[in-house]
Design a protein that fits this description.
The chain has 3 domains: 97 residues, no CATH class; 240 residues, 3-Layer(aba) Sandwich (Rossmann fold), CATH 3.40.50; 73 residues, no CATH class. The protein is 36% helix and 22% strand. Bound molecules: adenosine-5'-triphosphate (ATP) and magnesium ion (MG). Magnesium ion binds next to helix 4.
């Protein structure tokens, strides 16, 4: 192998086809023991040489003619064939390492004629990407066929995005992260829209999983309820405004009735609030607007006199605490009501230090998160201790601001150019890498970007999990039927 040229962070390497003993996404160290460039292969191509079209055409014509023997007494054809068969490897320089110290700005380059090319082990990459961090390590999968660990301390306090096309393995990775966080005693809240996380307490073969002792499913309206006094007027008005699209005049009237009732009874209860609105003199249209919404909230069953004790539910447990808010089978309005309540309560609980910081897993958050909450989640709420992990197969549903603030991205395969374009524009690594790698990535592989790998992108094969997964796409034609039909 020889370095052909280097421009910016792109380096082109010449090699013979037999030297291609690596995969796209693998790393190559170029230099010597002490100093080297750490480069990541992103593409392989042919070498451009003068007269190549003419050469190829000549071969084509000669191949097509029968009984033609080309005179080659010195057997130069095989040598020229080897030259013509050379390949160029395009790689990206991720770091310059000088006696163990990694730098992104060093002007050092390896010797073009004598530099050694070496494929580093997964252990070496793990050390490089961990950046000296060797606590809270969990097995995330394999790199170059060897076990690869990531450190939870790099996910802590961060904003993380998991994205990729359908069925690429995003939820599977999310479950591995949940398991890892819980195994170190962390607290996790999952907004589960598809009912995919409801069986995390079971293993694939039906036994008790490692999460069984730390797992609670919150079913709104059943074992999980809220009260108006816990919610407070501000959150209630927010819900009425954003979820039930209540006009401003109605909100003002309701606030007036609420305060009056609160003055009288101290604790506002939903059915008393409804009675008070019915009796209070006000414009009939306004009364109707308020009542229809209050009745709709009442029929959700989520608001009760006695609320679930969220502070107790969120308490840290030695073996981890995994809470799944089951949002599947809820009407869209109720789903948003539950999310709005949870976020507003979490915000007040965390800012009063009544619970330890926690991780929030939100799949397809655009289905239930109102626009103004994105910004709040990635700025203010992150600072008070709520670390979001957004999972989506539609990257354009996450606002650009969220990508810009993201510390980590787990990028699975994308084939759609529009999706790729969006991701390429916003990730911190070069868009060429994203465009080429994200398209080529096999299923269950993801490109890990950001703080969790010290900005050295790693192509990870996500490990299998023993946890039971629900929410698989259902099919009309089952495999058994297909076999029977064939038979
Ligand atoms: N690394 C893996 N090892 C073993 N099985 C996996 C792995 N990744 C994904 N799977 C399996 O592949 C299927 C699809 O994965 P998953 O549900 O995570 O995809 P997804 O990206 O979340 O899809 P969707 O966009 O539809 O939600 C699941 O049955 C899952 O169990
Ligand atoms: Mg999924």
């Amino acid at each position: 192998m020889k370095i052909l040229h280097k421009k910016g962070d792109s380096i082109e390497i010449l090699c013979t086809p037999t030297e291609l003993n690596f995969e796209i996404g693998d790393y190559i160290k170029i230099g010597d023991e002490e100093r080297y460039l750490l480069t990541q292969v992103i593409d392989v191509g042919y070498v451009d040489f003068p007269g190549e079209v003419e050469d190829l055409l000549r071969d084509l014509v000669v191949d097509g003619m029968e009984n033609v023997s080309v005179l080659d007494p010195y057997n130069t054809a095989s040598l020229s064939m080897m030259v013509r068969e050379a390949r160029t490897v395009t790689a990206k320089v991720r770091a310059v390492v000088d006696r163990g110290v990694s730098s992104h700005t060093s002007p050092w380059l390896p010797n073009r004629y004598s530099a050694r090319f070496e494929k580093p082990s997964a252990g070496f990459l793990e050390e490089m990407t961990a950046g000296g961090e060797n606590s809270l390590l969990f097995e995330a999968g394999t790199v170059c066929g060897e076990e690869f660990h990531l450190s939870l301390s790099r996910l802590d306090g961060s904003l993380t995005i998991i994205t990729g096309k359908k069925e690429s393995g995003k939820s599977h990775l999310a479950k591995i992260l949940v398991e890892a966080i819980a195994s170190f005693g962390g607290t996790v809240l999952i907004f589960d829209v598809n009912g995919e996380y409801l069986n995390l307490d079971k293993t694939v073969d039906g036994g008790r999983s490692r999460l069984a002792g730390s797992f609670t499913v919150l079913n709104p309206g059943q074992n999980f309820t809220a009260s108006l006094s816990d919610m407070g007027l501000k959150t209630f008005l927010d819900i009425l405004e954003h979820v039930y699209l209540t006009p401003a005049t109605s909100l003002r009237e309701l606030a007036r009735v609420w305060r009056k009732l609160e003055f009288k009874t101290r604790h506002v209860v939903l059915h008393e609030l409804i009675e008070a609105v019915e009796k209070e003199p006000m414009n009939e249209a306004v009364r109707d607007a308020i009542l229809s919404r209050l009745q709709s909230i009442e029929s959700s069953g989520f608001i009760a006199e006695k609320a679930s004790d969220l502070v107790a539910l969120l308490q840290k447990r030695p073996s981890g605490n995994v809470l799944v808010a089951n949002l599947s089978n809820l009407m869209p309005g109720v789903r948003r009501l539950v999310v709005e309540y949870l976020l507003s309560r979490l915000s007040s609980i965390l800012s009063q230090n009544k619970a330890e910081p926690l991780f929030l897993f939100a799949e397809e958050a655009h289905l239930y998160l109102r626009e103004t909450y994105w910004e709040d989640l990635v700025t203010r709420m992150r600072h008070i201790g709520l670390f979001p992990i957004f999972v989506t197969n539609q990257p354009d549903t996450i606002p650009e601001l969220v990508y810009r603030q993201a510390d980590n991205i787990f990028l699975f395969n994308f084939t759609n150019d529009n999706d790729l374009e969006r991701i390429a524009k916003i990730t911190k690594i070069d868009s060429e890498t994203v465009r080429i790698l994200a398209k080529k990535m096999p299923p269950r592989h993801c490109l890990v970007l950001g703080k969790v790998v010290s900005d050295i992108p790693v192509l990870l094969r996500v490990r299998p999990s023993s946890l039971q997964t629900l929410g698989k796409t259902k099919f009309f034609f089952k495999k058994v039927d297909a076999v029977q039909m064939k038979g």
